[in-house]
Give the backbone structure.
Amino acid sequence: MKQYIIRRFLQMVPTLVGTTFIVFIIINMAPGDPLSHLVDPTVSSEAIERRKEQLGLDRPLLHRYGTWLTEAAQGNLGYSTRYRGREVSAIIQTRLPATVILTFSSIFISFILAVPIGVISATRQYSTLDYTVIVSAIAGVSIPVFFLGIVLIWAFGFQLEWLPVGGMSTAGARYPSFFVYAQDVARPLVLPLVTLTCANTARFVRFTRSSMLEVIKQDYVRTARAKGLSERVVIYRHALRNALLPVITILGLSLPFLFSGAIITEAVFAWPGMGTLLIEAISQRDYGLVMGINVFLAVLVILGNLLADIFYSIADPRICYD
């Protein structure tokens, strides 16, 4: 297992290089440049050209990518034009905690809810409960995230006035302890968390149910029942562990998806995370910041696959990696 993990980390290098090269080419193929927002009557064309020379935008495309890659290999992801030359890594560090709080809370709650619901639905196939779960899961997957978010804002923010509809914490507030900070963040977190969790739970429920239906029809499950084991032991000790393997795959791949998929949710609720940061970077053509965020997402994709493989071996000890 140790050698397998080392090999996967070595494979990360060419994957990251290829990903960053493609993203760099696509970004630079778009019309405009990071200085497009300086097109103003008060700014002379000479000033803009001097600024392009300072930023290296007058150099050939491959030369600029080589410079960026060299700096990135040394831990420097570049500098942001929108944030007046601040390091990209420092900007990501300031926004990352907000996204981590939202996405990991959503993953945890979704998994805790989806697995038992999917198991119960599969063991009671064609019952009223099963049909209710199927319809609810399809609705949860089908409803657009932005629409659900707007409905929740209208209902709980404006009509009932129970919860705040934007931001993460009280502006200018000071927190003497972590408990006080958690209390302040908890109320704004509710609506975006519910919005993101609904879609994730629906997706996990569908995969859990389908996987359980396939597993409980296997011969070893019938053999366990024939031995006189209780239905609870058969389902949760024998069938569930094998049924979780496809769910683990989806869970591992959901890690990067949630960080990138939370863009819409964060935009709707003005949640100051990586999603809103990426929207700002794209709208301002902040090449350095867009590249830094894409590198971060590429690393998450690789780590998500690696975590899924590790959890495979935990769920099923028969699986080993040479």
Summary: Residues 211 and 246 are 7 Å apart (CA to CA). DSSP finds eleven helices and no strands in the chain.
